[in-house]
């Protein structure tokens, strides 16, 4: 783990912020049926589903959505035939919202209120883990972001089967930075296409979406 590219602490990295967000979104769903926003937009979900389909990842694969929020990623996966879906979030109202949206859509998925960094202990590791913004939020935690990122990588390694796949979408980190931070236990496998922007004669990506594969064992220190 490197210490380069540290971000200024932000409320976006706190549980209190997300508790407040999902309390409002749950109330809005219960009162008006509003399912809330899709983090990074619907295109981010489409890219993940298309990649899994193109790689012929079995629809029976166990899939974990880390920081599931309103669960819309799992809803879309279920619509495409994936049937072994789990979503976790440390916000209770997020999990209640995700359950309600899945029930409304006739989608089957398992949800759990838990902190991925501290107390997530699955009975079996997963074939695929997904992250769409959660690692970004961890990186903004005012109470020790660097340490929290290390805990994240450790928890991820334990949550994935050997050679399991990790699909991460980030607006904070570049490809090079993510590979540096996850490199000890993970190999680079692919990069998903994301929209480009141009400014001042330069072009780049506002979002990075990578596929990493868990190594069979950690490199000896």
UniProtKB/TrEMBL annotation:
Top EC class of this enzyme: transferase
Name of this chain's protein: EEF1A lysine methyltransferase 2
Gene coding for it: EEF1AKMT2
Annotated EC: 2.1.1.-
InterPro entries per the UniProt record, alphabetical: Efm4/METTL10, Methyltranfer_dom, SAM-dependent_MTases_sf
Record keywords: Cytoplasm, Methyltransferase, Nucleus, S-adenosyl-L-methionine, Transferase
Main localization of the protein described in the UniProt heading: cytoplasm
Reactions performed catalytically: L-lysyl-[protein] + 3 S-adenosyl-L-methionine = N(6),N(6),N(6)-trimethyl-L-lysyl-[protein] + 3 S-adenosyl-L-homocysteine + 3 H(+)
GO molecular function term, any single one: protein-lysine N-methyltransferase activity
One Pfam family here: Methyltransf_31
Family: Belongs to the class I-like SAM-binding methyltransferase superfamily. EFM4 family.
Organism whose genome encodes this protein: Hymenochirus boettgeri (Congo dwarf clawed frog)
GO annotation (BP), single: methylation
Record carries keyword Kinase: no
One of the record's GO cellular component terms: cytoplasm
Function: Protein-lysine methyltransferase that selectively catalyzes the trimethylation of EEF1A at 'Lys-318'.
Residue span, Methyltransferase domain: 62-191
Localization: Cytoplasm; Nucleus
């Amino acid at each position: 783990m490197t210490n380069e590219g540290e971000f200024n602490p932000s409320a976006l990295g706190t549980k209190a912020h997300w508790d407040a967000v999902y309390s409002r979104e749950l109330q809005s769903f219960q009162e008006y049926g509003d399912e809330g926003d899709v983090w990074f937009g619907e295109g981010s979900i489409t890219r993940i589903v298309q990649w899994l389909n193109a790689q012929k990842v079995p629809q029976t694969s166990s899939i974990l959505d880390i920081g599931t929020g309103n669960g819309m990623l799992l809803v879309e996966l279920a619509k495409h035939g994936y049937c072994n879906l789990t979503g976790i979030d440390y916000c209770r109202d997020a999990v209640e919202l995700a359950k309600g949206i899945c029930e409304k859509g006739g989608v089957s998925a398992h949800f759990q209120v838990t902190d991925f960094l501290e107390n997530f202990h699955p009975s079996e590791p997963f074939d695929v883990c997904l992250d769409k913004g959660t690692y970004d939020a961890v990186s903004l935690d005012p109470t020790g972001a660097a340490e929290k990122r290390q805990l994240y990588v450790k928890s991820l390694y334990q949550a994935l089967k050997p050679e399991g796949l990790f699909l991460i979408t980030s607006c904070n980190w570049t490809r090079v930075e993510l590979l540096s931070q996850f490199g000890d236990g993970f190999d680079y496998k692919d990069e998903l296409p994301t929209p480009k922007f141009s400014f001042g004669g330069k072009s780049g990506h506002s979002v990075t979406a990578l596929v990493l594969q868990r190594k069979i064992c950690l490199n000896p220190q």
